[in-house]
Specification:
It is globular, with a radius of gyration of 18 Å. It is an alpha/beta fold. The protein contains 9 helices and 5 strands. The two termini are about 25 Å apart. Helix 1 crosses helix 8 and helix 6 crosses helix 7.
């Protein structure tokens, strides 16, 4: 099968981006010497997933099917429903934005029991998200954690607007703005690319935060069981790319 362009470049990005992510969290380069996991993760006829590289390939290949108009909709049958009713074993943890247009099972062409989804506006690493992610890592040992941001993120845009205008968001929206403010403030007033640059900065910051704030995640990365990767979803094309 021809490897999609975004997969080839993204696998390279994962390799090139390792040192930067590890440096940001104080880990050593050896953390990315991935041994094969003891358990296998399968998805709709695809090869078994043992390593972070294989998990990323599974996700990006599914995204290529989605964007090329040839999704397989794996693991979406009643048989699959019954199969995982007794227990789940997702191969990836997704920390994504709550945006209605960014549904991981659809854009990665996966199914029931494949992805452990944690979603909140702005894909923010907070105590609740960390607890959920740590639970998944401890319970299922997934080989990859993906922090998934997206083009024209409303939470990022709202934070930039609040900074630039000095306004106070209503209700609990302020909690989102407060969490994102330190990350996106450097991009306030920088022109038409401010939101997109801030989106990418937020993805990188949340990847670093997940590892910096969680010993469970750091331990899984050090042992080579898991990698934490940032990615961006393009609302206009549907393409997911790795963010370094």
């Amino acid at each position: 099968m021809r490897v999609p362009t975004n997969l080839r470049s993204s696998m390279s990005d994962l390799t090139l981006g390792r040192r930067a992510l590890l440096t940001a969290t104080g880990l050593t380069a050896g953390a990315f010497a991935f041994p094969a996991a003891a358990s296998a993760h399968t998805s709709g006829g695809d090869p078994e997933v043992h390593t972070p590289q294989q998990a990323l390939a599974r996700l990006l290949t599914g995204n290529h099917r989605f964007t090329s108009g040839h999704p397989r909709h794996p693991h979406q049958s009643l048989d699959r429903l019954r199969e995982v009713a007794a227990g789940q074993h997702p191969f990836a943890v997704l920390l994504g934005c709550a945006d209605s247009r960014v549904s991981p099972e659809i854009l990665f062409d996966q199914g029931i029991g494949d992805l452990f989804d944690d979603r909140v506006a702005g894909n923010i690493v907070n105590e609740l998200m960390l607890g959920s992610m740590e639970y998944a890592i401890e319970e299922f040992a997934p080989p990859i954690v993906v922090v998934l941001g997206h083009e024209r993120c409303g939470a990022v845009a709202a934070t930039l607007s609040a900074i630039e205008t000095g306004s106070t968001p209503p209700g609990h929206i302020g909690a989102i703005v407060d969490a994102l403010r330190p990350i996106v403030e450097p991009y306030a007033g920088t022109g038409p690319n401010a939101v997109e640059n801030a989106v990418n900065a937020n993805i990188r910051a949340q990847v670093a935060a997940a590892q910096a704030r969680s010993e469970i995640i750091r331990a899984a990365v050090r042992a080579g069981r898991t990698a934490v990767v940032g990615a961006r979803y393009d609302l206009d094309t549907g393409v997911v790319t790795v963010v370094r």
